Amino acid sequence: MLQIDISDHIATLTLDRESRRNALCEEMVHAFATALESFRAVGVRCVVLRACAGCKVWSAGHDIEELPAAGLDPLAWRDPLRKLVREIETFPAPIIAMIEGSVWGGACETAFACDLIVAARDATFAATPARLNVPYNVGGLLTFLNAANLRLAKEMLFTAAPIPAERLCSLGIINHVTDAADLDDATYAMARRIAANAPLSISVMKEQLRILAGAHTMSPEDFERIQGLRRVVYNSQDYAEGIRAFKEKRKPVFRGE
Ligand code: LCV
Ligand code: LCV
Q1: Average pLDDT for residues 126-153, to the nearest whole number?
Q2: pLDDT, tens digit, 9 for 90 and up, residues 78-126
Q3: What's the CA-to-centroid distance between 40 and ligand 1, angstroms?
Q4: In which order are the strands placed within the sheet that holds 102-104?
Q5: pLDDT digits (tens, 9 = 90+) for 28-50
Q6: Would you say 79 and 124 are in contact if contact means Cβ atoms under 8 Å apart?
Q7: 63 CB within 6 A, ligand 1
Q8: Which phi and psi angles does 146 have, rounded to 5°?
Q9: What are the chain's domains?
C-alpha cells in the first residue's frame, strides 16, 4: 500500500492502493507510521508524500468501508486519519505533499497537514464531510483553518466542491503549482534545498510552528457542547444514509435527521 525510497537524506512515500483509489485505511496508516519511524532513525531530512506518477486520484480520503456504523465517533482520537495527521505534524523533518490528480476528504486534510504542497496545475482538492454527513472533528477543522482562511475553509467544507490547485495556489494555500511534467523536478529541488540546510534548526522551528498553530483556547464547556452536537450528527439517519449511498453507488438523500 506504500512504496518507500530513501536517497541523500530525502525519503519518498508513494501511496500505492490504486484498486481503492489510495483510500487511507488503517493498514496503510500503520505502514506510514512505521516508515516515518524508520526515517527518523536514519536522520531523513525531508519526506516527499506522493502517489504513483500519472494517477488520476491522489487519494480518495478516509476508507469509507472503515467508517464506524452510526453511534460511534467516525473521527475519534484513535481513528487512522487522526493518527496520520498527528504523525505528519510531529515528524521532525518537513514533509512535502506532491500532488497530481484529485484529492478527497481526509486526504485533503492530510495534504494540508503536510508542511509544503507542490501540485500539478490540474490537481483538485475537495473537503467532503458534507457529502457524507460526517461531523468533522475540532482538530481536523483546525488543519483546514490553519492551511486556508475561514472564508475558503467554509467554501470547501460547505460546498464539498473540488477546488483547482491553481486557485488554491493563488490564495497561498498551496506553495507551488507546476505542469505535471515538471512536478518531480520542482518538488525534489525544494526537498534538496531543505535537506542541505540545518536539520536541528528546521525540526525545532517545525515543532514551534505546530504548537503556535494549535494554540487556540476552547473552554471545557464549549468542547463538551461541540462533542454533543457532533454526536447528534453521527447518531443521525443521515450519517447512515451517507455511508449506505456510497456503498450502493448512488447519490444520498439527506433529510436533516
Ligand atoms: C473506500 C473507496 C473510496 C473510499 N473508501 O473510481 O472528509 S470526510 O469527513 O468525508 C472523511 C470521512 C473522508 O475522507 O471520507 C471519504 C471521502 N471521499 C470521497 O467522498 C471520495 C469517494 N470516492 C469517489 O468519489 C470516487 O471513488 C473517486 C472520484 C475518488 C474515483 O472515482 P473512480 O470512478 O475513478 P470508483 O469510484 O469506481 O472507485 C474504485 C473503487 O474504489 C472504491 C470504490 O468503492 C470502488 O470499489 P469497487 O471497485 O469495489 O466498486 N473507493 C473509492 N473511494 N474513500 N473505498
Ligand atoms: C557579520 C557579516 C554578515 C553578518 N554578520 O559581502 O535569521 S537567522 O536565524 O539566521 C539570524 C541569526 C541571522 O540573521 O543570521 C544572519 C543571517 N545572514 C546571512 O546568512 C547572510 C550572511 N552574509 C552573506 O551571505 C553575504 O555577506 C551577503 C550575501 C549578505 C553579501 O555578500 P557580499 O559578497 O556582498 P561579504 O560576504 O564579503 O561581506 C562583507 C563583510 O561583511 C561581513 C562579511 O563577513 C564580510 O566581512 P569581511 O570583509 O571581514 O570578510 N558580513 C556579512 N554578513 N550577517 N558579518
Answers
A1: 97
A2: 999 999 999 999 999 999 999 999 999 999 999 999 999 999 999 999 9
A3: 32
A4: 57-59, 102-104, 124-126, 163-164
A5: 999 999 999 999 999 999 999 99
A6: no
A7: yes
A8: -70, -30
A9: 2-195 (3.90.226.10)
For atom 47 of ligand 1, the residue with the nearest CA is: 20
User: Burial level of 198, CB count in 10 A (0-12/13-18/19+)?
Assistant: exposed
Mean pLDDT of 63-72: 95
Q: Please, which residues bridge with residue 207 across strands?
A: none
* 136 among known catalytic residues: yes
CA 219 – ligand 1 centroid, Å: 36
Give the pTM.
0.96
Q: How far apart are CA 28 and CA 171, in angstroms?
A: 31
How far does residue 199's CA lie from ligand 2's centre (Å)? 21
| Rounded-to-integer distance, Cα 115 and Cα 108, Å | 13
Is residue 222 lining ligand 1, measured as CB closer than 6 Å? no
| Distance from C-alpha of 247 to C-alpha of 65, rounded to nearest angstrom | 8
